[in-house]
Automatic annotation (TrEMBL):
InterPro entries: Aldolase_TIM, TIM_sf, TrioseP_Isoase_bac/euk, Triosephosphate_isomerase, Triosephosphate_isomerase_AS. It comes from Comamonas serinivorans. It is an enzyme of class 5 (isomerase). It is found in: Cytoplasm. The active site is at 95 (electrophile), 166 (proton acceptor). Substrate binds at residues 9-11, 172, 210, 231-232. Pathway: Carbohydrate biosynthesis; gluconeogenesis; Carbohydrate degradation; glycolysis; D-glyceraldehyde 3-phosphate from glycerone phosphate: step 1/1; Carbohydrate metabolism; erythritol degradation. One of its GO terms (biological process) is glycolytic process. NCBIfam families: tim. Involved in the gluconeogenesis. Catalyzes stereospecifically the conversion of dihydroxyacetone phosphate (DHAP) to D-glyceraldehyde-3-phosphate (G3P). This is Triosephosphate isomerase. Its EC number is 5.3.1.1. Belongs to the triosephosphate isomerase family.
Amino acid sequence: MRRKLIAGNWKMNGSQAANDALVQAVLAGLPAGACDVAVCPPALYVPQVHGLLQAQNAVALGAQDVSAHETGAYTGDVSAAMLKEFGVRYAIVGHSERRQYQHEGDELVAIKAQRLLAAGITPIVCVGESLAEREAGQTEAVVKRQLAAVTHLNGKCVSEIVVAYEPVWAIGTGKTATPEQAQAVHAALRAQLAVAVADAGKVRILYGGSMNAGNAAELLAQPDIDGGLIGGAALKAPDFLSIIGAAT
Ligand code: PEP
């Protein structure tokens, strides 16, 4: 009932030539009847990738962040309306790298999600615990607090979001949560959504954290894992395509 979504987070990688080659290879290799697919290039490359994708519907365009403000004197920011103008359909908010390096907190993440929803863009809201928090038995409390900020602020619109569970200790480290560990957190998030929003059954919960061609099928077979947010493996077309194949 929930279509799987595989979203590639390119992070601060790419060049015009590399983006062109990657997008062409992904489009050429997509399996028939593929699951939903999105790619999230750096903001500067959004117009380029929009141009590369626009003749087709199989791969959607995403962004990695958005301003918390609507318009005005916010040097360096990119607004939700600007993303929308370039065909952006998804935008990541609350990625752990932004929480860590840009000190973004739950409230700011919720406001960013609100800006996106108002512009008709689907927020991919990232939640996830650090290794210390997992070892202290705080995993559920942390991810529930992070998700509650968004559901609280965005009320009825929240069934329009995508959630990504990304344990911080698994991102870019080659360490993946086991399917059982991931499923347990996804089930807890699903239960939280069921209380917080009508239509919670519609909300896709992606797993992210060193998902790759070798482990995707097992993770995606879990009942509450509705796709993946893919970092490193999204930069290589064959790897990204085999994850898409596992979700299709
Ligand atoms: C991410 O940054 O969202 C991510 C999941 O990265 P990786 O797949 O490289 O762990």
